[in-house]
Each structure stands twice: as structure tokens, then as C-alpha cells.
Amino acid sequence: STPFLSVRDLRVHFSTEDGMVKAVDGLSFDLAHGKTLGIVGESGSGKSVTNLAVLGLHHPDHTEVSGEILLDGQDLLTATERELERLRGNKMAMIFQDALASLSPYHSIGRQIGETYRKHTGASKRDARARAVEMLRKVGIPQPDLRVDDYPHQFSGGMRQRAMIAMALVCNPELLIADEPTTALDVTVQAQIMDLLKELQQETGTSIIFITHDLGVIADIADDVLVMYGGKCVERGTKQEVLRAPQHPYTWGLLGSMPTLEGDVDVPLSPIPGTPPSLLNPPTGCRFHPRCTFAEQVGGGRCAAEQPPLELVEGRGAACHLTGEQRARFSADRAAAR
Ligand code: SF4
Ligand code: MG
């Protein structure tokens, strides 16, 4: 069967005064109905840009986007602005780290949720208000019939995040893109929001793309995982595959500082040395090579010269020159080091 969302060879390049920034450079993935894809990577890895392209929110003047983004068979890259307008908020919606950026300070929470609903359903103001109350109740705002007339500044950070989720879900979108929606929240509220998203997904069958730099969050919510580095996917697989048997040295580095699925391994926090690559002048060969401690194992300067292809078997694989045998050995060493 055709996947609900299918992205093929997506490239998003910005022209800047300094040259072309290849923010996303040849990305492909599928997402099925009701599933959650976790996209993980450091800031500047291209994960947010990918999703803005899905929503058609990239700046058209300075951006070249190519490839294919099929949502239920419709190519979003060739859709008109009007068609995208109809899809956004209705069939697909987004939540961000900063609720204040997506909520207007000038209108009540209820009005904003209601307006989104009215825009796509043509509901009356009265019905829209009732729907806003219902949504606020659903996302766990206490006394929603009273709080519906509050303004964003009257809500706490966690409540604003819930209100933003209510607004995103008011039209039952089939695709929800969540870009670090819990990063700014304290751990307790973060856990509540994650539980809420999982609950709502169970109820509505929404597909979710969850963008994060936090593998702990991935372990909590994702079905499949895509690891991005320097505008490219370096590893893909199911959550179990990627977190339990990672294949790419970059993922090994990420996991060195994160809990595992079982959450029972004490790993010292060790950020990956070095900085993310420039997307203006990306490193030659494997983009990770300047930071990779395994490049000399591959030998022959190959990592600096030759870009490793992402070779997938049934959606599973990594882009790295290490042989399967080398990987198995290094993985075993990693496990032993724990
Ligand atoms: Fe490291 Fe080479 Fe693999 Fe890139 S291709 S991750 S530099 S070993
Ligand atoms: Mg981002």
C-alpha cells in the first residue's frame, strides 16, 4: 500500500550572500497512518527545514526545493499556495517549541482555536467557541469553559503548549509535525505533554513527525527513527533497531550521552567533540569525517574523499564506509565499555 506521507530525494537549498546553503540534501522517508517518525539530530542538521518544506512554509524567493513530497498521493511541492492554505491547519498541522510564536497575544486562546476551526469548517462562532472549550478540555486545561477567554499571557508555559496543541488538533489533522515542542519545558511538564500527544494519537490516528535532539524523547514516542547529520540522513530504522543496535558512528556518539530504551544503562554524558558541519561548505566525502574517530579504521583517506551512500534493506541502514564486520566489532566494544 502507498504510505500516507512519502518524501523522495528532498533537497532544500537557500541562496545567501555567502553562497548556497544545502540545508537538506537528498532526503527520503515514508510515514504510515497513525505512526510516529522521530527525526533526530543536532541543531543545523536540517531537521526543521525538512518539515517547513513539507508544510510549504519555506521562503519561496530564496529557496530551491526539489524532489517529491506526496501527502496521500498529492505532491505538496507542486501544490498552489491556495491548496497548501487549505491543507495547513486542516489536514496537516505543526507545533513548535515556542507557543508564544504561534499564538497571537492580542486574541483570547478560545478565539484563536475557534478561528482555525471556522476557517476550515465554516462553523458558526458559537460552535467554534464550544469546540475550543472541548479541545481545551481534551488537552487537560482545567476549567476550560472559564479559561477559554484568557489570553496567552494568562497561561503558564505548559498550558500555552497545551493550548497550541489544541489549536493544532482542532481540525483533526492527519499529519502533525512537532518540532521540539517540549524542549523549553521542565521534565514533569514535558512528560505530561508527551503522554498527551500519545493519547491524542491513539484516539485520532494522526501520523506524527517528531523533531528532536533528544534520543530520550525518541525512545518515548517514535516508531521509526531517522538520524540527520549535515542535511543528510545518516541512519534509519525502527526505534528498536536504531536505539538498540545503532550502525552509524554519529548515532553511537548521540547514544553515548542518552538513555537506552530500557532506560537502565548509566552512560557518562559525553557530547560528540567538534561542531556540526557548515552547510555552506560541507566537508568532502562523509560529512561526519572531521569528527569521526572511526575514519582511520576505514583507511585510505576514503572517508574524506567518498560520500558513503545510504544503503537500506527494508528501510534499515546507515550511510558509512565501515564494513558490517567492523561495525559489529565496534558495537560490541561499545557495549563492553558500558
Ligand atoms: Fe566515520 Fe567514515 Fe563512517 Fe563517515 S564513513 S561515519 S567518517 S567511518
Ligand atoms: Mg530546529
Automatic annotation (TrEMBL):
GO biological process: peptide transport
CDD domains given in the database record: ABC_NikE_OppD_transporters (cd03257)
Keyword Nucleotide-binding: yes
Cell membrane as UniProt keyword: yes
Top-rank taxon, per record: Bacteria
Entry GO MF terms: ATP binding; ATP hydrolysis activity
Name by which UniProt lists this protein: Peptide ABC transporter ATP-binding protein
